[in-house]
UniProtKB/TrEMBL annotation, chains A, B:
InterPro entries: HTH_LacI, LacI/GalR-like_sensor, Lambda_DNA-bd_dom_sf, Peripla_BP_I
One Pfam family this sequence matches: LacI
Annotated signal sequence range: none
GO molecular function: DNA-binding transcription factor activity; transcription cis-regulatory region binding
Protein name: Maltose operon transcriptional repressor MalR, LacI family
Organism: Litoreibacter arenae DSM 19593
Domain HTH lacI-type residue range list: 10-64
Spans traversing the lipid bilayer: none
Keywords: DNA-binding, Transcription, Transcription regulation
Length: 342, 342
DNA sequence: CTGAAAGCGCTAACAA
DNA sequence: TTGTTAGCGCTTTCAG
């Protein structure tokens, strides 16, 4: 029984007429927490099923002021970390009855984020997640005024009103630094991400401090901008000469793959025999035997859970202070790093 | 000047009062194609800027019946082909003034798609894109009744009312088949995707027919379900024994990487010297030197363009017939396939 | 428990 | 060109 009455748009009024009740009775039957007698519920549900009625989420949102939509701005989808995050975030939100309005942003163009955010706000989202994207402080002010909670995912900002969920990037960089020191390497290279990103800055500072704690220093540094091709060029620049490093920390896995590819297939070097490489994120590909990449794992499940939690709390109570979570990750040692040759 | 008047929700009425005009005058200024005198426009824009007013997209949508939202259901985000498609689709839609309401679906659970689609419809989207997901015919009937255009992306269905954009999967499989034949291989293996997927069926049939056209036949077949771990197991099952194939066609690149990893690092085989491997999709990773995978390229830009086109046409004119595009791809020969040893 | 009535913020006739 | 008016489909008082 599909009752295909070919009604273009079935409204609660039509259901009411068919069920012989008032329109508001229909509304009550479909509103959680409203009361109706079993008899009415039965009549209404029957009529609704016959007509194929479903409440119009937009009309409901207008009244209640709750759209049940969360805006998600994302960039760098070619880095496997983000599709994974988007998938889990979307699922977690769906479980809570929220839906995701998604926007792509180019990470380096701040202007872009501005306009995209305005459009999101126009759609009356109840909250916004910015993944791998920063925002101007004037924009964060506007969101605060609108009372719309914003959570930065895998990025930080100085503005303390801004909620942010990150891994301890400094700690992760530090761990890689001491790992290299323990392996006995002394000529060390670093390939940076996009310089404007807090993750890049924190990981580099942690790495430098980790090296320093063992009396070591960086001897080479290039910039890869979180882009495969840039990272490849950076690796060649760093390692094509005679005084190449013994170990390189690459600011994320996505670039580390480019570096390993360049070292192995362009320069004919072996990893880890000739040179050690470590990344950051621990995306699934890092575990594939072709790379078997040592990396610092971001606790993506906990990051997503914290993000959702931060959102829900501030939606319920907008006066709550910003939620700033800095989670611990874990060094995953694999075959791309090895002790210095005796 | 940010005019932070801390108004939680600025409405057109407030703008009207401040500008000394009627509420509908404000509406006209913000409605494309409505007329207002330069003087009114100036007054209204000024007041709006001071108040930080932006039209409520939902209220507008209720009146006009156009939400400017497209629902996107997607699965298999770990296969790089889909994040790439999502990114381009989202961008193309944004350019046309549409926004994307995104949902994750588990590809094997048809039930799941059903409920997710209902939720999407509740939000009054103007169209739906199903990427790597099929739907029951009863569901497609419902969408037809609602007058909501649905486009299948990278998947086909028998129902002719359903728009679908695909690559010529049969042709792609055929091309791989003849490629193997030309290389002189005779013991041939195939690793299938999820058996319920039209892409899997079409690629396999094309491949078999391609082989047949050269007098060849399949000598081994396993199922990888589009999942890395399953594909790995399939490869081991197929190649661990003594009578392994000389060449394997894997139904998509994502699984082909698993197969190459298993052959090289578990079985100690060389690709292509000991065994040739080809995939399908030509995702960016296929071009990375670690894999250098021969593949059949899907014309993703044209697929996205066709999808958007199909959507826009049927939104404008719902009576238009379904749009079924089957695009030609291209065989990309790389280093993972080589001639049979003399 | 139920129906009538009042809007949510906006656009689209319709007069003026 | 403008203001007035009538809703879009729904939830939510408020009487009954």
């Amino acid at each position: 029984m599909d009752g295909g009455l070919m009604a273009r748009k079935v409204t609660s009024l039509q259901v009411a007429e068919r069920a012989g009740v008032s329109q508001s009775a229909v509304s009550r039957v479909f509103t959680r927490g409203a009361s109706a007698s079993p008899a009415t519920v039965a009549k209404v549900k029957k009529a609704a099923a016959e007509l194929g009625y479903r409440p119009n989420a937009m009309a409901r949102a207008m009244i209640t002021g709750k759209s049940r939509m969360i805006g998600l701005v994302v960039a760098y989808l070619e880095n496997q970390f983000y599709p994974e995050a988007v998938e889990r975030l979307s699922n977690a939100l769906q479980e809570r009855g929220y839906h995701v309005l998604m926007f792509m942003a180019s990470p380096t163009a701040g202007d872009d984020v501005q306009s995209v955010m305005e459009e999101i706000l126009d759609h009356q989202v109840e909250g916004i997640v910015l993944a791998s994207v920063s925002m101007s402080s004037s924009l964060s002010t506007r969101c605060a005024e609108h009372g719309i909670p914003v959570v930065l995912f895998n990025r930080e900002q100085d503005d303390p009103r801004m909620s942010a969920v990150t891994t301890n990037n400094y700690g992760g960089g530090f761990a890689i630094g001491t790992h290299f020191a323990e392996l006995g390497h002394s000529r060390i290279g670093y390939i940076a991400g996009f310089e404007g990103a807090s993750t890049q800055r924190d990981r580099e500072q942690g790495f430098r401090d980790g090296l320093a704690s063992a009396g070591l220093d960086l001897s080479a540094r290039e910039v890869g901008n979180f882009i495969y091709a840039d990272a490849r060029a950076a690796a060649l620049e760093m390692c094509a000469g005679t005084d190449r490093p013994e170990a390189i920390f690459v600011c994320n896995d996505h670039m580390a793959f480019a570096v390993m590819d360049a070292l192995r297939f362009k320069l004919g070097l072996r990893v880890p025999e000739d040179i050690s490489v470590a990344g950051f994120d621990d995306v699934p590909i890092a575990a594939w035997p072709a790379y078997d990449l040592t990396s610092y794992r971001q606790p993506i499940n906990r990051m997503v859970a914290q993000t959702v939690e931060a959102l829900m709390q501030r939606i319920e109570d907008p006066t709550r202070p910003a939620h700033r979570a800095k989670l611990e990750g874990a060094l995953i040692q694999r075959g791309s790093t090895a002790p210095a040759k005796g």
